[in-house]
Give the backbone structure.
Amino acid sequence: MAYRVLITDDSPAMRSFVRRVIELSGFELSACFEAGDGAEALAVLKNEWVDAILTDINMPGVDGEELLRRLAADELLRGIPTIVISTDATENRIARLMALGARGYVTKPFRPETLRAELERSLGVPGD
Amino acid sequence: MADVLESMFFLEGLSEAAEPPPDAETVTVHLTFTGNPPGCFQMRLACPAALTIAADFLGEDAESLTAQQSTDVTLELANMICGAVLSRTESSASFRLDTPQIVPQGTGQHVPDEKTRYTVETGSGTLTVAIQMETPICLPTERYAS
């Protein structure tokens, strides 16, 4: 099965990297959308259904925390698994974001297999 | 730092190296962090290494990269190394990384304490990082904004 994924990060380089890593990991993508911040992500979600959202935290405008709040407040969108990708691996931050509704958390640096495993876990994909 | 470079930038076999001289062709990134602890981070990367690292990160040929792509990856590298260092040394603390800024050539560069500096050879040039926590002399990033 192939999945539709939205990558939200203010760094175009990071968005390209995440997309490439997903493809390298063997995770099947049928569509991959990109957004530069939470507001852009929500605009994409008005028109496109996705199976999972990957988001950075620190972004100008609507940041990752606010994006999680807005997703949780939306009846249609709250069920989409959202995985945070961040350099911040502090316990407080991880706990706060999981409490806001993040389904997974990947800390940079990460390896392709780590991201794939977190995507599959969040989507409930049976393991090999 | 080695973990970041190996996992995300596909660099292996890194070895500790001597810091390049002040007049070497390098790109410098300055980043401040607030919270507990506050402080600043600086990364100095040889120009050929910046290009190679950007190409590896994006999966493209170095010749086809734009200057903006190379800069974006260099800023992301600084962000990742700083975040990784802080998370590992202060895992129960909370901090927020400000946006990394390129330090314009010729600008007086604040250099954190000698004890915090570390330089590695990447294969295409050196990479030096320095971090300083709770520093009252760390300059605001606005000074470096282009």
